[in-house]
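This is your field. Have a critical look at both lines of this record:
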Amino acid sequence: MLISFAVTNFRSIRERMEINTLKTGSKGLVSNYFKASGKRQMLKSAVLYGPNASGKSGFLTAFNALRYLVNESAGFKVDESIAPYEPHRLEKSYISMPTTLEISFINRWQYDYIIVFNDEQILQEELHYYPGTAKSLLYSRFAGKEIKFGDYFKGPKKTLEKITSSNQLLLSKAAENNAEEVLLTAFRFFTSKLRAYPVMEVFHEHNLTSFYAKRLAEDKEKAFTKRFNAMICALDTGISSVSVEEVDWNNYKFPGNMPDEIKKQFQEDYKYDIKTQHFVFDKTEKIGFESFDIRQESAGTQSLFAIGGIILDALNHGRVLIIDEFEKNLHPNITGFLIQLFHNPVINKNNAQLIFATHDITQLSNDRFRRDQVWFTQKNEFGATSLYRCSDIEGIRLGTPLDKWYASGRFGATPIIHDADFLIEMQSDEV
């Protein structure tokens, strides 16, 4: 589970910005948090609101940047640039400064992890964990210096230090070389427990739909398949059932210059098509079914197939799910239903967490979120993002109508439209 995440010097984020899921002293909505280790209580979700280009997507993309570096940097070649390095470019002094990513999470043990990097190398990497209540060092690494290992690090220290290039994370190399369990457990948080979808483009949805088509085909009697089917049919999509069919590649013409290995991989990845069944009526009587290809369904239904699958997986595995534009193509009632799945203790038995950004103000109604679950982003006149929590704003009380206050601009983080010049130009006689 996620405790906190902080970003410095990444895209529009200049100064350090941190979000955390620790419950504050605010009252209400007891189903929206759960008891974690010790006396801590953790929130099951956090939502980011703010104008377009205010930094919401950049902040969520930073999750994916960290996950990518942990998962992939072990394979970086010597002198290969570090792609996720995207410093703030609207302040001269920050353009050449490093990016810092910090995360605290629980995966069996609590871990604190920090990395500092530029486009060429990892400048700092530190991993601490809590075998009990006290914080203990596993390793501390600074560019150009000998790595400092803590007493709890029992692995091949010198070997790891020797094989880790300056642009690679030690955590990644340790996992690649079968490190001890305390390091593998930290690594597995990024591979198994954290899922980030900072941009849900059409091709992402298509890929996810193909992935879940394969799941449905190969696990016909599994709980996931039954729940996925039940979700799609329950949300007023007009669909009575979902099935899959194997693609007939004889009706598909590949480019003549496509290598056979790529063709085979493509056929394997897109082996199945999802089919939806709708009732056929004769006046008011049901007389049969009609089958449709998923691509014939509405954009909202297609989005639901993608996001519904990743939500069910997150709930089943107790994952931390990061999603931008959560409400894309979905009716507010459906968006609210999906959010409430995380708040429902009967359904969310594994304490999955949802961190997401949205423009859907209707979700701010007081029966959906606590004040400490709501965060706002906005940019200052210098193009730098700030992040602040609703519960930290003075004057906010338990019964405050958050949706109405936000819509009226009382929280800030709403678009300021400078329309005077535009209106004058539109009224000019020039064409």
Observations:
- The CA atoms of residues 235 and 337 lie 9 Å apart.
- The two ends are 58 Å apart (CA to CA).
